[in-house]
Design brief:
The chain has 264 residues and is of the alpha+beta class. The chain has two domains: 14-108, 2-Layer Sandwich (Phosphorylase Kinase, domain 1), CATH 3.30.200; 113-247, D-amino Acid Aminotransferase, Chain A, domain 1 (2-Layer Sandwich). It has helices at residues 14-18, 72-89, 125-131, 160-165, 171-193, 238-241, 247-258; strands spanning 7-8, 26-27, 29-35, 39-44, 49-54, 57-60, 65-68, 96-99, 104-108, 111-122, 138-148, 157-158, 197-209, 212-215, 224-228. Strands 10, 11, 12, 13, 14 and 15 form a six-stranded antiparallel sheet that branches. A five-stranded antiparallel sheet has the order 3-4-5-9-8, covered by helices on one side. Helix 2 (72-89) runs parallel beside helix 7 (247-258). The longest helix has 23 residues, at 171-193. Residues 1-6 and 8-22 have low confidence and may be disordered. Bound molecules: thymidine-5'-phosphate and aspartic acid (ASP). Residues 116, 118, 124-127, 147, 155, 201-203, 223-225 line the site of thymidine-5'-phosphate. Thymidine-5'-phosphate (TMP) binds next to strand 10, helix 3, strand 13 and strand 15.
């Protein structure tokens, strides 16, 4: 394992205490395990802990459109830490341990499920295109969908039968992913609403650890749609996808309204 300088961290966090163990005050950043479109994953000196680096790289349409957006990594790391902690506090198990510094966080190592779970409160994006329903229709109850995580195939929509037959997850895991995704919606819809933001839709990824499923990956404006409740202004990655400008400024606005600490 390649070891770089230890990353200084302050007190063991509340999240760390939740898992019944004290996280050491120093965590060594090890070798790079994987680099995705917006995050890089590193080993640490604890085989059960990984370090997530939120980069400024931004991509859309399965990696076809790319850009570097100054401060996006830091903004997403901060928003993700805030949301993951809110979910933990509400009883949704997540991989999040603590934020380490501006662009990095410590998480539990998961065996990731290869499917993406999407919850929608309002019609937008691919649902609008697929069914020919106008963007903006508010749904009476959330729609839940599965997609296969595969950029080459453009993340095709799949159903429970595909997941079971191809062995991507068990029937129990499918039920648990649906239950946890809707629980996340029940926590986050009011949280965003109190900040004057409509939670239109979002994507989650889950993984296995210690025989159970927990929320992995991230929750940031890169993987959800957020509209200003009063003006319908888009405050999420659609600003990048649709060339609307002010991408990171909008993410910062989301953070500010949620009360995410931005200067520690
Ligand atoms: P969609 O309208 O493109 O299906 O996306 C629904 C929501 O899920 C939207 O907030 C974007 C998010 N999402 C991702 O972030 N990555 C993905 O690969 C997929 C399929 C959806
Ligand atoms: N499929 C998602 C999007 O179009 C994620 C990505 O490709 O970056 O934004």
């Amino acid at each position: 394992m390649i070891q770089s300088d230890p990353l200084r961290r302050p007190e063991p966090s509340r999240a760390a205490a939740t898992y019944g163990r004290v996280v050491p005050n120093f965590m060594k950043k090890g070798e790079q395990l994987y680099s995705g479109k917006a995050k890089t994953v590193f080993r640490t000196d604890d085989p059960e802990r990984l370090l997530l680096h939120f980069r400024n790289d931004t991509s859309a349409f399965d990696g076809v459109k790319k850009a570097q957006l100054e401060k996006k990594g830091e903004m997403n790391n901060r928003i993700n830490a805030f949301i993951m902690q809110k979910l933990e506090d509400a009883g949704v198990p997540t991989h999040f341990v603590e934020r380490l510094n501006a662009e990095e966080s410590l998480v539990r190592r998961l065996d990731m499920v290869r499917v993406e779970c999407v919850v929608r409160n309002v019609v937008a994006g691919s649902l609008s295109k697929r069914l020919g329903i106008e963007e903006g229709l508010v749904l009476d109850e959330p729609v839940f969908e599965f997609f296969l995580k595969d950029d080459v195939l453009h993340d095709p929509m799949i159903n429970e039968s595909h997941i079971l037959v191809f062995g991507w997850a068990s029937a129990e895991e499918i039920a648990e992913m649906r239950r946890l995704s809707l629980a996340v919606n029940d926590v986050l819809k009011p949280l965003f609403s109190a900040a004057g933001i409509l939670l239109v839709d979002f994507k989650l990824e889950f993984g296995r650890v210690g025989g159970k499923l927990v929320l992995g990956d991230e929750f940031t404006p890169d993987g959800c749609r957020l509209w200003d409740a009063a003006t319908q202004k888009k405050l999420d990655k659609d600003r990048f996808r649709r060339d609307l400008g002010d991408v990171v400024e909008s993410y910062r606005e989301v953070a500010r309204r949620l009360g995410v600490p931005l200067d520690d």
